Amino acid sequence: MRCPHLPDGFDFTDPDLLQDRVPHPEFALMRETAPVWWCTQPPNISGFGDEGYWVVTRHADVKYVSTHPELFSSNTNTAVIRFNETISRDQIDVQKLIMLNMDPPEHTRVRQIVQRGFTPRAVRSLEAALRSRARSIVETALASADTDGSFDFVTNIAVELPLQAIAELIGVPQDDRSKIFDWSNKMAAYDDPEYAITEEVGAEAAMEIVAYSMNLAAARKECPAQDIVTQLVAAEGEGNLSSDEFGFFVILLAVAGNETTRNAISHGMHAFLTHPEQWELYKRERPKTTAEEIVRWATPVVSFQRTATQDVELGGQRIRKGERVGLFYSSANNDPEVFDAPETFDITRDPNPHLGFGGGGPHFCLGKSLAVMEIDLIFNAVADVLPDLRLLEDPRRLRSAWLNGIKQLQVTTAAES
Ligand code: HEM
């Protein structure tokens, strides 16, 4: 069905569109007039379906699809983690080794194993180390600001903590961290031509991470230590990940836990700087509800995908077996059926049933508590060290088909003259 109000072929995955803005007015129109809509435009996300795809915009429908994996499979390229065919080893279909692209029961098996590394206790055990990292990242940004007090918040602050958190979590030795950071950044950046990184370089970096992680896994099997790698690959008596599976799990962490949290932090800072009353409130009261509202407001992952496993009815439409379905979290998180004044950035919003971490099904974000902790730690540090930060210019946005990202956010510590 054509949306009566949008140009035929309007594409919500168009990187040019997402570089400019999140299409909130169009999402609002869709939620009201055509909440499940067949977009005829071949999408800009590889594997999203060559003929077109279903755009799902209402909170209730995104949740329904996410919680019914038997009707909507994750098996075919759920997210945009691409590998170059010529680089992939032994013709393995590497996509299938990533848990985001698995269905139960295979997904259930892997998820049960990797969950061991994300228990509340495991995440809490990182808190002290990450708290002091957050503080030193912000202090270093202040120390290295230009003489006029200006610096880029993204590269100096937002990029650092998510990388450190993943390295801390999997126990990457300090000396190896810069390599992992370099590979992760190359992998995340090839969507954006301005970085001048080709898809080949991104794919090569991904394979470097897999090889590095497999070696780490093999070393821990040989010589167990007190870390998550050991718990996942070498624990006795329970299911374990193979070295291959561990390698691809680290890739997923490098993509899923890195760019997402970076963008939540950058958008959060931008939201504070453009809503000074919320920043004042934050500095005074540090509400525990802040991080969730930042994730709702930013919705760093605009959309993920599923494939219908059978003919199925959704939002009054007949979706046929094999058709691709796009879950638009950005739209769901602004659905007025669920949120009072969704266009208001309100760090005390409670309850806040946003879908920024997914629609609550089996793939619900594994790193949610870690992400929330990172966001809390970084804004606590910014509020303590840089309470009077000011925005210097509009942010430069990331050019991407599926991420709502900020590439550059120029700020200053100098008082307004
Ligand atoms: C899955 C968002 C941070 C690890 C997901 C999904 C979303 C998401 C939308 C898919 C959910 C679904 O399909 O139902 C975010 C956002 C983050 C964030 C917005 C930051 C603000 C992290 C962090 C980690 C992480 C810090 C780990 C270090 C994962 C993993 C999955 C996942 C492993 C796949 C889970 C599965 O397939 O079972 N995330 N994420 N994420 N996330 Fe996150």
From TrEMBL:
A Pfam entry, by short name: p450
InterPro entries assigned to the protein according to its UniProt record, in alphabetical order: Cyt_P450, Cyt_P450_B, Cyt_P450_sf
Entry similarity comment: Belongs to the cytochrome P450 family.
PANTHER family for this protein: BIOTIN BIOSYNTHESIS CYTOCHROME P450, P450, PUTATIVE (EUROFUNG)-RELATED
Protein name in the entry: Cytochrome P450
Organism: Streptomyces rubiginosohelvolus
